[in-house]
Amino acid sequence: MKLLRYGNPGQERPGILDAQGRLRDLAAQVGDIDDTVIGHEGLSRLAAIDTSTLPIVDDGVRLGPPVARVGKIICVGMNYADHAAETGASVPEQPVLFMKATSSIVGAYDEVMIPRGSLKTDWEVELGIVIGTMARDVSEADALHHVAGYLVVNDVSERAFQLEHGGQWVKGKGCDTFGPLGPWLATADEIPDPQNIGLWLEVNGHRYQQGNTRTMVFGVAHLVSYISRYMTLLPGDIISSGTPAGVGLGQHPPVYLRPGDVMELGIEGLGQQRQRVVAHPADAS
User: Fold this and answer.
1) What burial letters (b/e) apply to 207-231, b meaning 16+ CB within 10 Å?
2) Which string of DSSP letters, residue by residue, matches the chain?
3) Of the four, 41, 61, 73, 121, which is 20 to 30 A from 249 by CA?
């Protein structure tokens, strides 16, 4: 299944794509696409619905983040060897973890706002892993049983905040609008092998990133197991699993986002995003 949320910010309704790719309304079946729905039992109930009986949603509606009330976003740094190399870092011996603020979450087609005073706002296409059932210190063999599905994440990053302002990376990761998600949540059965899907990103029509999850340093099952050792993963939590080479920081010279730029990105089977970059009101002329 491909589950979505549509409507104005804060007023999104649950939806599902039918076999013809049309958006259908799910509001009569569930209150929202959230932690109460994306467990095994909830997804089984949704899978039993005849989508052809659901109301069709008109084209042109805004698509919001496909998961409501995300508890936490755990990000994985340097999880592709080529990305580590382009930033001058070593391939880590264990996953590098940091958090991304849930207040950064926006929809797949919403605007991305450059923070006040920023000169180094960057892009990162990443596979997002959505937890469906609680995972606490789970084995790698059992890890994927706790995954509800997958979605596209643009881990937008401000490199000066991240690397030059002291402390942890989170300063450059949690700014408002820095977490576009979706357009949909594809349930795990839609992605039989999460370690063999292509991902890409373009800025103003130029392709900067082209990769495949098979080159991850630490795979999806390992990440879920590893992270669950250090914190309990709850339904609706998202793991953003790292980005391949091609970020702005890695260009020679570096290239960063400016107002008016357009980012387009996608992952095989998970759809595409498109964001227009805008200036912070304090910096707008």
Assistant:
1) ebbebebeebbbbbbebbbbbbeee
2) -EEEEESSTT--EEEEE-TTS-EEE-TTT-S-SSTTTSSHHHHHHHHTS-GGGSPBPPTTPPB--SSSS---EEEEES-BHHHHHHTTPPPPSS-EEEEE-GGGEE-TTS-EEPPTT-S-EE--EEEEEEE-S-BSS--TTTGGGGEEEEEEEE--EEHHHHHHSSS-GGGGT-STT-EEB-S-EEEGGG-S-TTS-EEEEEETTEEEEEEEGGGBSS-HHHHHHHHHHHS-B-TT-EEE----S--GGGSSS-----TT-EEEEEETTTEEEEEEEE--TTT--
3) 73
Of the candidates 172, 133, 131, the residue with the CA atom closest to the CA atom of residue 150? 131
Q: What is the pLDDT of residues 2-49, one digit of tens each?
A: 999 999 999 999 999 999 999 999 999 999 999 999 999 999 999 999
- 175 near 162, Cβ under 8 Å? no
CB 74 within 8 A of CB 95: no
pTM of the model: 0.97
Phi, psi of 204 (to 5 degrees): 55, 40
At residue 81, the pLDDT reads 85
CB 49 within 8 A of CB 35: no
Q: Which residues contact 126 (CB under 8 A, 6 or more apart)?
A: 75, 152, 153, 154, 155, 199, 240, 241, 242, 243
Distance CA 37, CA 31 (A): 9
- Which residue in 283, 280, 282 sits closest to 113, CA to CA? 280
Lookup result for tokens 């949603």: 57
